[in-house]
Amino acid sequence: MIDTPAPSMLRALPAAHRERLLRVAREVSFPQGTRLFEEGGRADRFWIIRTGTVDLDMHVPGRRAAVIESLRHNELVGWSWLFTPHVWHLGAEAATPVRAYEFDATAVRMMCEEDPELGRAVGQWVGDVLAHRLRSTRTRLLDLYAPWGADSAV
């Protein structure tokens, strides 16, 4: 199965919604090796990558964290901020120096509540990203831990 990339904010949201969100964003940068968040931590913000690479990883007991996916330009880092209980389901680390737009999750959720059209668009976008990440996680874990790998016939 060929998986298409997760939708970027530029492709997923109408221009007016993108502009509203970007007005509440702040520009941030992270040196290589910076942990953006840890699995189980409070999901109170999210990012859109401008430059660099962020690795999403998953804690595996007794092993090093498994890198699930590497995110790049225009990709969303973090989806747990939108869904109760607002706790990170994965970890994230800057694999290279990163520049990004950072968004306060509470402010964006309030914007979505106040403007149902914006809320639907953001919910659809983040839901599409979430579906992509779940497929990527499944494939990556099968590649790492299944006896024959994801591409083998049983």
Automatic annotation (TrEMBL):
Domain Cyclic nucleotide-binding: 9-100
Superkingdom in the source lineage: Bacteria
PROSITE patterns membership: CNMP_BINDING_3
Name recorded for this polypeptide: Regulator
